[in-house]
Each structure stands twice: as structure tokens, then as C-alpha cells.
Amino acid sequence: MLVILSGVAGAGKDTIKKEIIKRMDNVKSIPAYTTRPPREGDVPGKTYIFLSKEEFEEKIRNNEIYEYDIHHNHYYGTSKKFLDEEAKSGIVIKDIDVNGTEILKNTLKDIKIVTIFLRVPKEELRHRLENRIDKPSEGEIILRLNRFDYEESKISLYDYVLKNDNLEKAVNIIEEIIRQESLSEK
Q1: Domain that holds residue 28
Q2: Tens digit of pLDDT for each residue in 106-138?
Q3: N or C: which end of the chain has fewer CB within 10 A?
Q4: Do the Cβ atoms of 142 and 148 come closer than 8 Å?
């Protein structure tokens, strides 16, 4: 089973994903491919597989990626090999943008997909972005805020929409969604 977390940058996807993995032994993550530079806390090969633009584009040409997109001037994508291996043998939780979610929902036919969209009020989002550890520039913040309305317009793609204004509450709800959905898969 594949659990997809989506929402704008700063919605808490990565924080929630890490917390779910800590709390649920049967849930794991797979690294995404990216061309962005590593940030503090990234573990190459675990959080992301860092590639050059040329390496990423070669993977696209070789049909090794299910979905990819360019965010904030960097490629991000989902490895076919990693997803196929891990989602068929257990529960994978992954944060993917709305475009990638749509592609995976239309592409993956033999893997159960559960989609969750995390909502955050725009003013709260600006505050979160300004206070991130990686300190995005004002230009990066504006770029991310400009994507807000587009991401929100895709909410109908999702099985669940959750306001993320309380981390503990959001994690508890998502844990229960995963439990219920994994039961219905059997």
C-alpha cells in the first residue's frame, strides 16, 4: 500500500511522515530522486538520492521514474524500482506533490493508494516558511506561496483532506487512516 501525503511546501508533510514512521513499525519511506542540494538532516540514499540534472534526465529517458516534477528549480521524482519493491511488500508513506499524486493514481493499478492532503492557512504557511531550519530566501518563500492556490485547487484528487494545525492530532488521525485502510486491503 502507498500512502501519499501532499500539500504546499511548509504544510508539514515531512514532519508527519517521520513521526508516522517512528510510531508505526509496518510503515516505511522510500527516498525520492532530487537534483536539489542536501539540506541539514538529509541522509543521502535514505531521505533522498541526490543526482545531477544530467543523471536525473537520464533516468527519465530510461523510464526509471514513475512521476517527476520541477519544484523551486529542482527535479523531484519517484523511483519505479524502489516503489515497486517496497509498496508490494508493505506500507510506504511518501510526500508527493499534487501533479505526482495524479500521475500515480492513474498509473499504479496493482498497488493500493491512499491519498491525504494537508491543509494549512496561507498566513500560517508564510510563518512556517520564514521559520524553517533551511531559511529560504524571500524569493523562495514567494515562489512557494504562489503555488498555494494551485495545490489547493487539486484537493478533489484526495481521499482525505486534513487541516494540519496541530501536529499530534494530525499524526493520530493519519495513523488511524493507515490502520483502517490497511485492514480494508486484506
Answers
A1: 2-185
A2: 999 889 999 999 998 777 776 767 776 566 677
A3: C
A4: no
